Amino acid sequence: MPIEWLLTGENQDNFTLNVSPPVRLDKIAPVKGEVAAGVWLEHEFMDDDKYPPVAANINPKYSDIEQYALRVKGDSMDKYVKDGEHVICIDFAATGEAIPEDNKVVVVRRERAGTTEYSLKRVRRLGNGDYELWPESNNPLFQKPIGMGHKDEGTTVTITGLVIGRNLND
Question: What pLDDT digit, counting tens, does each position of 8-23 carry?
Answer without folding.
Answer: 556 555 555 554 444 4
